[in-house]
Design the sequence.
């Protein structure tokens, strides 16, 4: 499953040397392993055993159409967060009956599009949204299938910006109001209440929060049934965390102190805990994994432009910045950074920074790295999810290409933007 590894001191993606990819496509460039995507997906799916379920890939993690096509081919579904993601998912071959639509601020035209395409369900976030959907469905002569997203006030123990299930987050309806909202919604002929939805955050590294959410959702489902609501689905969202530290090992690479939470973490072990709770709940389990399918399947190649000593620090200035990979700047996220051809034994503490006009433009701060020099190529690991998807043209910088490696072959699946594209 781990398709990025050193072969004779040269980082490879499957059978292709990263140096050849950098030569062919330039830097910065996102590189993905097809086998990794497929293997992660199959591994995830196998964990369910005989439990009736639907995995809807969270399209926001990586919206590349070629990658969406691969995932659709695996037979899973998709969860979209906008009309654009719906359009991409349906266009890439996900069948409408396996597509869901989540989001706290769906516009009327987005709701109409989803209803016209007859997707599996809209995950709704407020009473006001139910009324709007009801009105639109009525005008269209359709019945809208919905799940109610409920906020169970569970601390996912992750970065505040990616915590979504705490009471003060904007997501879902308060759990104390859920039964009233569900029973009211099911009286409307234009609405078919399928069930309950919960998504408590992203990069969650302890199964405890998931288990709490699953228990709360199942308990609510039980009460809703007693109140006469025909609950057929419980959607527990995504958020399964992945290992970012010490992802690649090499004798010349430093070993980071293990993040306690991430140590020994596997998505599947968390999923299994959750499945134990779900057991025979008597309804379909839906999940919406994003990061856990894609993060390990991609890297960002970047070239060292300059070394610079200043203010008692050593800066390694590279050609990828926060416009290419926003996660470190936005969430202080950790990504392992490695030379694609490690050859220096001495380690140093550096900031790896991008070329943009912001002090927040960094890929790593106070990081121990083998010494690197101008022209060296580095790989920023585990950037397959929320990497390109969060890229922008800030500072009028064209976005990098995306390349898919399959065994010995590689294909450009999104061209590098040009100045004319700006
Ligand atoms: C509603 C919803 N479902 C699923 C996901 C996917 O989360 P992850 O990529 O952590 O699995 C997200 C991401 O924030 C989300 O908002």
Sequence:
């Amino acid at each position: 499953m781990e398709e990025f590894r050193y072969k004779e001191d040269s980082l490879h993606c499957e059978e292709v040397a990263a140096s050849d990819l950098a030569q062919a496509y330039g830097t910065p460039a996102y590189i993905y392993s097809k086998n990794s995507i497929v293997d992660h997906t199959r591994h995830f799916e196998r964990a369910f055993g005989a439990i009736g379920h639907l995995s809807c890939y969270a399209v926001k993690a990586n919206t590349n159409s070629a990658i969406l096509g691969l995932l659709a081919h695996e037979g899973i579904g998709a969860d979209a967060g906008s009309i654009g993601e719906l359009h991409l998912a349906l266009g890439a071959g996900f069948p409408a009956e396996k597509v869901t639509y989540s989001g706290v601020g769906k516009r009327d035209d987005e709701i109409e599009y989803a209803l016209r395409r007859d997707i599996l369900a809209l995950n709704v976030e407020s009473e006001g949204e139910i009324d709007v959907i009801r009105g639109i469905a009525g005008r269209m002569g359709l019945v809208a299938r919905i799940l109610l997203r409920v906020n169970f006030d569970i601390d996912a123990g992750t970065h505040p910006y990616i915590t979504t299930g705490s009471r003060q987050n904007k997501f879902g309806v308060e759990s104390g109001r859920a039964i009233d909202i569900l029973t009211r919604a099911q009286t409307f002929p234009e609405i078919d209440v399928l069930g309950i939805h919960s998504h408590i955050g992203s990069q969650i590294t302890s199964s405890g929060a998931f288990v709490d959410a699953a228990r709360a959702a199942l308990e609510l489902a039980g009460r809703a049934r007693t109140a006469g609501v025909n609950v057929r689905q419980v959607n527990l969202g995504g958020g399964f965390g992945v290992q970012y530290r010490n992802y690649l090992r090499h004798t010349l690479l430093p070993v980071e102190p293990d993040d306690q939470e991430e140590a020994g973490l596997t998505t599947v072990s968390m999923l299994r805990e959750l499945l134990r709770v779900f057991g025979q709940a008597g309804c379909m389990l839906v999940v919406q994994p994003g990061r856990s399918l894609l993060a390990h399947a991609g890297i960002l190649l970047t070239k060292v432009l300059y070394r610079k000593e200043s203010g008692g620090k050593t800066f390694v200035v590279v050609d990828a910045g926060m416009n290419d990979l926003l996660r470190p700047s936005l969430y202080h996220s950790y990504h392992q950074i490695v030379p694609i051809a490690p050859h220096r034994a001495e380690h140093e503490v550096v900031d790896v920074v991008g070329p943009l006009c912001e002090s927040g433009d960094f890929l790593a701060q106070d990081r121990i790295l083998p010494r690197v020099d101008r022209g060296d190529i580095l790989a920023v690991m585990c950037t397959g999810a929320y990497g390109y998807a969060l890229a922008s043209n800030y500072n009028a910088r064209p976005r990098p290409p995306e390349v898919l490696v399959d065994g010995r072959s590689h294909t450009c699946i999104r061209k590098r933007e040009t100045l004319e594209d700006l």
